[in-house]
Amino acid sequence: MTERSADVVIVGAGPTGLLLAGDLAAAGVRTTILERRTSGSSLSRAFAVHARTLELLDARGLADELVRGAERVDRLRLFGQVEVDLSRLPTRFPFVLITPQYRTEGVLERRARSLGVQIVTGEEVTGVRQTGDEDGEVEVQSRGPGGERHAWRAQFVVGADGVHSAVRTSLGVPFPGTSVLRSVMLADVRLDRPPPDVPTLDATSEGVAFIVPFGDGWYRVIAWDRHHQVPDDHPVGLTELRDVTARVLGTDLGIGESRWLSRFHNDERQVPRYRVGRVLLAGDAAHVHSPAGGQGMNTGLQDAANLGWKLARRIRSGAADRLLDTYHDERHPVGRMVLRLSGSILRMALLHGPGVVTVRNRAAGALTRLAPVNRGVALAVSGLAVRYPAEPGAGPHAGRRAPDFRLSSPDPARLYEALRQGRFVLLTQDARLTLPAEDVSSVRPVGDGPDWMLVRPDGYVAASSTNPDPGESDSALRDALRRWLPDVQPAPAGDRR
Ligand SMILES: Cc1cc2nc3c(=O)[nH]c(=O)nc-3n(C[C@H](O)[C@H](O)[C@H](O)COP(=O)(O)OP(=O)(O)OC[C@H]3O[C@@H](n4cnc5c(N)ncnc54)[C@H](O)[C@@H]3O)c2cc1C
């Protein structure tokens, strides 16, 4: 058996593992991904990239490449009468981007490789074992393409190996939840007669149909027949797909050629802990839910963005272990919320019976015509509403996503460009507030704002102050540094009293 080592071994080169690996490598962490597949993924599974995900890709210089050439949709139509307006979202990306998952993975993989991540393909992980002590390490066992056995040693291991995670199973971590829907058909097809308003979701006493355009002539169709369900391995036929969509939508879409047909069942599950000693779980390995709302890949990418800088700090600077624990504290509630959000959309879609569908459509239509409700739904679906728990005294914006402030310098000209350094960013007009440049970039925002705002590398506000008392304001900044950069103990320079 051959033994190899890395600082971090990530299991799975899906979107979650690829983003995380790139972030770790950018921070100087030796990172290896073990991936069972022998070739690149061609699956178009997740097609929706939401605004918050585009912002975090922007903070890595990747968003513009992904947006170029993909379809932007700024209105979501559900149940005939509901229209959710994304066009007024307070972001550079006021839309949902429709693009196949393999494109997103391609962008992330190129970045990871260019930063020096080692991606070992054809390598199936079969077990994970960690030694129990403080300075312990983790051993990962795998099987190579020819059946040969390998062992990998790492300080930390991340299970980003999807819904059937071998890492999770090997550690005996439970994955409680239920199966909610069987025999959901998924297809990428050409349509002779596409519906005029896409994307569109309709649900009737016949079943559910969802149509979304990729913008290149192909359409994603997700369909479920209320009267006919079969096991996942039962092939999907175009006749079956045509029949159920026509019954639900009341019109024949002219479904023609297909490039992908699949049938799956839908579970709602979440692990109780995202961290087990030196092993962390992220993406579908930690949570799975209905595709309604297009949240799966987006949530996994945001797990990765939350975990990357914390794990890098733990390894590179010996930051206190509790920093790493905040990964579970922050992301587990978000995962639970996503399960609730996608579950509610799904359950609304599944309502049936005489009159019930009409009442649902009218009530949902009336509710979402109220501007605050429409905005609330748009913020929730786009991921912009995600907020992490804040420490008392951390200021009015703490825990929220930082808006993309314009800066007084030409380069970087925006906060999300400044975040491309992978460091904390201190926004302040006060030149006397200086912090160690290797940990924090200081920038000056244009216009009014708080006295200072400390933004984490993942684009969330660590702390901010509008306190007119300079002594109290400085002390709040020191508290924030103690919490988020525990291995750095600088006092803000300059006597501001
Ligand atoms: C049929 C289907 C349709 C979907 N549609 C949507 C959608 O419309 N919108 C949406 O947002 N989400 C959708 N999803 C979910 C979305 O695809 C996932 O949320 C997303 O892929 C999660 O990314 P991940 O990186 O966490 O896991 P994955 O993408 O599953 O990646 C895990 C990787 O780990 C590898 N792996 C697994 N086991 C091992 C092992 N033992 N050793 C080594 N490597 C291993 C796999 O080969 C894979 O490359 C869909 C999922 C499915 C199955």
Would you kindly provide a written description of the structure presented here, covering whatever features stand out?
- This protein is α+β, with helices and mostly antiparallel strands and 497 residues long.
- 31% of the residues lie in helices and 27% in strands.
- It is built from twelve helices and 23 strands.
- The strands form four sheets. Strands 1, 2, 8, 9, 10, 11, 17 and 18 form an eight-stranded mixed sheet that branches.
- β10 and β11 form a beta hairpin.
- α1 packs parallel to α7.
- It is globular, with a radius of gyration of 24 Å.
- The N and C termini lie far apart (65 Å).
- The relative contact order is 0.13.
- The site of flavin-adenine dinucleotide has 34 residues, from α1, β2, β9, β16 and α7.
Secondary structure elements and pairings:
Elements: E1 2-11, H1 15-26, E2 31-35, E3 48-49, H2 51-58, H3 63-67, E4 71-73, E5 75-78, E6 82-85, E7 96-98, H4 101-114, E8 118-121, E9 124-130, E10 138-143, E11 149-159, H5 166-171, E12 177-191, E13 200-203, E14 207-213, E15 219-225, H6 238-249, E16 255-270, E17 275-276, E18 279-281, E19 287-288, H7 296-316, H8 321-350, H9 356-369, H10 371-382, H11 415-418, E20 424-428, E21 440-443, E22 452-455, E23 461-465, H12 470-484
Parallel strand pairs: 1-2, 1-11, 2-8, 5-13, 11-18, 20-21
Antiparallel strand pairs: 3-7, 4-7, 5-6, 9-10, 10-11, 12-15, 12-16, 13-14, 14-15, 16-19, 17-18, 20-22, 22-23
Helix pairs in contact: 1-4, 1-7, 7-8
Radius of gyration, in angstroms, nearest whole number = 24 Å
Could you tell me the strand content as a percent range? 25-35%
Find the count of extended strands (DSSP E, 2+ residues): 23
Through-space gap between termini: 65 Å
The main pleated sheet reads as: 8 strands, mixed
Unreliable residue stretches:
none
| Count of DSSP H/I helices | 12
Overall pLDDT score = 91
3D shape? globular
Helix proportion of residues, in percent? Answer: 25-40%
Bound molecules: flavin-adenine dinucleotide
**Helix vs. strand class:** alpha+beta
